[in-house]
Amino acid sequence: VLERNVKVGTGVKIGYGSVLGNDPQDLKYKGEDTWVEVGDGTVIREYCTINRGTSATGKTAVGQRCFLMSYVHLAHDCYIGNDVIIANAVQMAGHVTIEDRAVVSGLVPIHQFVRIGTFSFVGGGSRVNQDVPPYTKAVGNPVHLYGLNSVGLQRAGFSPEVKLALKRAYRLLFNSDMTVSQGIAKARAELPQIPEVENFLKFIEGSQRGVLV
Q1: Could you give the count of Cα atoms lying within 13 Å of 199 in the half-sphere of its Cβ?
Q2: CATH code of the domain in which 189 resides
Q3: What is the H or E stretch that residue 160 is in?
């Protein structure tokens, strides 16, 4: 069912019983004209719900070539990047961001305003209440980081140089006695100037909810 104000790209497949464009479940919503946008080639399986945005951002957006499995819920103002895989019964509160090429396994609840970084992996049943840095693996309940998403990086064709630099950056921030700010400064001073490393560091610097450890 497409309720109202839904923009759907080419080649999008929507499964039986899914509802897109229903009102946001937010007491502050007063009937503003907001949207749902779904990018080209995305697959939305059975019984998913995607609420429209609120006046805060104006829309809830899903990128291109994403795969949302059955019973996924996207609350108001969520942003999903491109090539994201979200498994069955993942439940997102408002304003969640999932960056490109991330994978979220089944039965994962995600707290409002959480960010899940690019090429990261979240294991099934993990309750995610803080940001998941890009290129990392978060598993368990309570959820913790368990190093880099090595399988995902390998499948994506990351070079050995980039993977080594990311591993060194991860160790400086999460496996040392330094504070986060000290680890970031040391990483910038000592590691190769690689875009992926800088993206990793900037994501952590910009966290509002704090990052998982």
Answers
A1: 18
A2: 1.20.1180.10
A3: helix 160-174
Query: CA 192 → CA 116, 168, 196, distances in Å?
Result: 24, 10, 10
Name the active-site residue from 21, 63, 73, 76: 76
Catalytic residue among 21, 53, 81, 94: 94
111 noted as active-site residue: no
Question: Structurally, how many domains does the chain consist of?
Answer: 2
- Residues 73, 159 share a domain: no
Query: pLDDT tens per residue, the chain (213 residues)?
Result: 999 999 999 999 999 999 999 999 999 999 999 999 999 999 999 999 999 999 999 999 999 999 999 999 999 999 999 999 999 999 999 999 999 999 999 999 999 999 999 999 999 999 999 999 999 999 999 999 999 999 999 999 999 999 999 999 999 999 999 999 999 999 999 999 999 999 999 999 999 999 999
Q: What is the pTM of this model?
A: 0.97
Structural domain boundaries enclosing 61:
6-148
125 and 169, same domain (yes or no): no
Our answer to whether residue 77 is catalytic in this structure is: yes
Same domain, 50 and 116: yes
